[in-house]
Write a structure and sequence with these properties.
Blueprint: E1 10-14, H1 19-30, E2 34-39, H2 42-54, E3 58-63, H3 69-83, E4 88-91, H4 106-134, E5 138-143, H5 156-176, E6 181-188, H6 194-197, H7 202-210, H8 224-231, E7 243-246
Helix pairs in contact: 1-2, 1-8, 3-4, 4-5
């Protein structure tokens, strides 16, 4: 019995060329899925595709702006031409900013909301509709954040956008359930890539680790198990509308 076998499935990873998205894309490919790596940076996408192939999977890269419906529709058409299916959608795009609230300009607000929220809604409209109409079920996995509940200090717009992602996840879980399309979200803790670690002040790092019972940052590969679990219609067939924490205990910490 293999609850995590994704053989025969096609997974579309929006933002699959990012650090976290790439790690999860490799895991899905390594468990048998054909993986469409979608992003704006072709070089980074190709690097992820190579890692997927090294893990024994099959991958293809697609270039798209996740905030444009026509780009996503084209990706869907191209993916269907490639494998004939779309069973798994993972939404990984993300943009952050530490602009103080009173200094926040609406241009920045709109940009972050477009990348973090609008892209999720559009992808769920495009790929979710295909899954619902086809009637064979499917899995949508949105990437949220510990800043979604409660909001994290200094990242106002990011926190608001991720709180909305949680709401969208639960709403669509209810809407899509009759078609056996499951919609869940992963809430990662602090998984700073090397470039992000450099901008973390010692005080900020100390505060984060003090609030994380495991007393460390997460590694990208530690999201792989959650991704494969939620993608599998064997392992998580009765799981929808859930917000799965992978945060080293951050969400259970008080004083």
């Amino acid at each position: 019995m293999n609850l995590f076998d994704l053989t025969g499935k096609t997974a579309v990873i929006i933002g699959g060329n990012s650090t976290l998205g790439g790690a999860m894309a490799v895991a899905l490919g390594g468990h048998g899925a054909d993986v469409a790596v979608v992003g704006r940076n072709a070089e980074k996408s190709e690097a992820v595709a190579k890692r997927i192939e090294e893990a024994g999977g099959k991958a293809k890269c697609f270039t798209a702006d996740a905030t444009k419906a026509e780009d996503l529709q084209k990706v869907l058409e191209d993916v269907l031409a490639w494998t004939g299916r779309c069973d798994i959608l993972m939404n990984c795009p993300g943009m952050n900013s530490t602009t103080p609230f009173f200094e926040l300009k609406m241009e920045e607000w709109d940009t972050i909301m477009e990348v973090n929220l609008k892209s999720v809604v559009l992808a769920c409209q495009v790929f979710g509709k295909h899954m619902v109409d086809k009637g064979e079920g499917g899995s949508i996995i949105n990437i949220s954040s510990v800043s979604s509940e409660p909001p994290l200090s200094k990242v106002f717009t990011y926190s608001a956008s991720k709180a909305a992602v949680n709401n969208v996840t639960k709403f669509l879980a209810r809407e899509f359930a009759p078609a056996r399309v499951r919609v869940n979200a992963i809430i990662p803790g602090f998984f700073p890539a090397e470039q992000n670690r450099k901008i973390l002040s010692p005080e900020r790092t100390e505060s984060i680790l003090r609030h994380t019972p495991m007393n460390r940052f997460g590694e990208a590969e530690e999201l792989q198990g959650a991704a494969v679990y939620l993608a599998s219609d064997k392992a998580s067939s009765f799981v929808t509308g859930s917000l799965l924490r992978v945060d080293g205990g951050y969400g259970s910490m008080t004083i």
